Write the structure tokens for this entry.
Amino acid sequence: MLARLRPYLFTSAVLLLIVYFGVQGFTGEGGLLRSNQRSAALIAKTQELAQLTATRRDLEIRAQLLRDSSLSADLLEERARSLLGFADPRDYVIRLKP
């Protein structure tokens, strides 16, 4: 009986491999059925990137204004007051709970 099935062993092994990789292609981690999850993750990461890019641009502008070559007096005063905790007597101070 084994002698009659011997010619088909290679063919059946190749068929099993094709079926295995086909199933993985549809349902695996990077499969076709998971494309909705990848699309949602891509949209979320794109929005996060846009937010981080805007934050970085703002921080770069603020850092540029604090350099010696282009020092902004208003920004310097704001940073000094926030770090030292001082306020001008004419300022309105609103305390917020952390």
